[in-house]
Specification:
InterPro entries: Ferritin-like_SF, TAT_signal_bac_arc. This is Ferritin-like domain-containing protein. Keywords: Membrane, Transmembrane, Transmembrane helix. It holds the Pfam family Ferritin_2. The protein starts with a strand and ends in a 7-residue tail after the last strand. The strands form two sheets. A two-stranded antiparallel sheet has the order 1-2. A two-stranded parallel ribbon has the order 3-4. About 50% of the residues lie in helices and about 5% in strands. Helix 3 runs antiparallel to helix 5. The relative contact order is 0.17. The N terminus is likely disordered. By secondary structure, the protein is mainly alpha-helical.
Length: about 240
């Protein structure tokens, strides 16, 4: 069944009083008042006999994949802003608060979008951070850098698996915001340098690197406690 859904950022708690490149202008275009044409959800079966969720096929699988990554980032930044590390500057608090708001909106957007086209939505995941000291600046920044770099690379590679042009445009808008996040974190680590677009994330053609879903899930797997599969992409 084809379904049309409306997704709005009404009620989001973004502080729009400050003007910088991470603010509402960057995220609002991606989530405000969108109309999405849903996939045909009659062909998707997600829950395996062992109770492990499968992300699904086609566009819905990609949306669930993005939703999993956004859940992870939102959870991480929630922990950061609820207990800022010792000695954090006001400027750093501002950056992390902006990122927190963005990732919450991204997470909630994907949940609403997927719920509008199928009842089989990736459940709320549980996460763990065994090697992260949330009271240590270097540990938090290093983890944020890894998550943001991985997120950008994930969107870049996933685009080719999206068939619905509306979804592809949305993914393009969101990955542009994620790239700003990555640059901001990198600049906090190495201010005033070219690290914001370092050779480790930019290829020889001057483009952001792309990572296939299997590589992304392997990289992020240490943070994700809730198991899931994506058989279409060979993730079991």
């Amino acid at each position: 069944m084809k379904k049309t859904i409306q997704v709005s950022n009404q009620g989001a708690t973004l502080d729009t009083s400050r003007r910088n490149f991470l603010k509402l202008s960057g995220i609002g275009i991606a989530v405000a008042g969108l109309t999405l044409i849903g996939c045909d959800d009659d062909n998707f079966e997600y829950m395996e006999n062992n109770g492990i969720f499968d992300l699904g096929k086609g566009d819905v699988g990609v949306l669930n994949y993005a939703y999993a990554l956004e859940q992870l980032e939102a959870d991480f930044y929630t922990k950061v802003v609820n207990n800022f590390y010792s000695g954090i500057s006001n400027a750093e608090k501002e950056v992390f608060t902006d990122l927190y708001h963005h990732e919450i909106i991204h997470r909630d957007f994907f949940k609403a979008a997927i719920s509008g086209v199928t009842d089989n939505v990736l459940p709320t995941l549980e996460f763990q951070y065994p090697n992260v000291n949330f009271n240590d600046r270097n540990s938090v920044l290093a983890t944020a850098k890894a998550l943001e770099d991985t997120g950008v690379a994930a969107y870049n590679a996933a685009g080719k698996y999206i068939s619905n042009p509306t979804y592809l445009v949305i993914a393009g808008k969101i990955v542009s915001v994620e790239a700003r996040h990555a640059s901001a974190i990198r600049d906090l680590i190495n201010p005033g340098t070219a690290a914001f677009s370092g050779d480790d994330v930019i290829n020889a053609n001057g483009l952001d690197v792309a990572k296939e879903p299997k590589d992304v899930v392997m990289a992020a797997g240490g943070f994700i406690k809730t198991p899931f599969t994506w058989k279409e992409q060979g993730i079991n």
